[in-house]
Amino acid sequence: MKSNNIILTGFMGSGKSTIGRILAKEFNTYFLDTDVLIESFENKTISDIFKNEGEEAFRKMEKKCFEWIKNSVTNTIISVGGGLPVYVPEIKEAGRVIYLRVEFEDILKRMNDEEIKKRPLFQDVKKAKELFKKRDKIYAELADIIIENNDLNKTVRLIKDYYAGDK
Ligand SMILES: Nc1ncnc2c1ncn2[C@@H]1O[C@H](COP(=O)(O)OP(=O)(O)O)[C@@H](O)[C@H]1O
Ligand SMILES: O=C(O)C1=C[C@@H](OP(=O)(O)O)[C@@H](O)[C@H](O)C1
Ligand SMILES: [Mg+2]
């Protein structure tokens, strides 16, 4: 299916959900966030899923969520959880993939306690840094475009310009 979706990937805290919401307004189109979808499908928070059912169960939910998106969603801005491309490498089948890249040290600066609390895999900063190093290459390999997301407005403008050039 030719979907016209735009998929935002990147590490936890790189700004996928924030930028996705803004882009959907700018493009006057729909917005989906896989974490929000999973929480709603399961009627549980991500933290509770990790705590009570474990990461493997969460990855199965992500895979199911992705399959649904791939088969049913078009013309939508989709922010995916930071781990999804690692476990669902066929992500490109559902749309154009943009990697929102931010250096780990900069992510750390923008994450407050509340943001950290929501993310089970960000509880140990050393482990999160190791995860970032491993995933950075994977995100880059699976992306159609890589954007250094330091300045929110600049990122939105770059993505808009990129799509304007497409038409
Ligand atoms: N340039 C930026 N782009 C997007 N979010 C930013 C930026 N700078 C700071 N933030 C903040 O970073 C935090 C994490 O953003 P979020 O969109 O939830 O990330 P993700 O969905 O990638 O985990 C939010 O509190 C957001 O307001
Ligand atoms: O990187 C990961 O493995 C995860 C990222 C989270 O989403 P964000 O990238 O929006 O924080 C969420 O899906 C879950 O906590 C696992
Ligand atoms: Mg998010």
UniProtKB/TrEMBL annotation:
Pathway: Metabolic intermediate biosynthesis; chorismate biosynthesis; chorismate from D-erythrose 4-phosphate and phosphoenolpyruvate: step 5/7. Its main location: cytoplasm. It is found in: Cytoplasm. It catalyses: shikimate + ATP = 3-phosphoshikimate + ADP + H(+). GO terms for cellular component: cytosol. Its cofactor is Mg(2+). SUPFAM superfamilies: P-loop containing nucleoside triphosphate hydrolases. CDD domains: SK. GO terms for biological process: amino acid biosynthetic process; aromatic amino acid family biosynthetic process; chorismate biosynthetic process. Substrate binds at residues 35, 59, 82, 135. Its EC number is 2.7.1.71. Binds 1 Mg(2+) ion per subunit. Mg(2+) binds at residue 17. InterPro entries: P-loop_NTPase, Shikimate/glucono_kinase, Shikimate_kinase/TSH1. ATP binds at residues 13-18, 119. GO terms for molecular function: ATP binding; magnesium ion binding; shikimate kinase activity. It is an enzyme of class 2 (transferase). Catalyzes the specific phosphorylation of the 3-hydroxyl group of shikimic acid using ATP as a cosubstrate. Belongs to the shikimate kinase family. Monomer. This is Shikimate kinase.
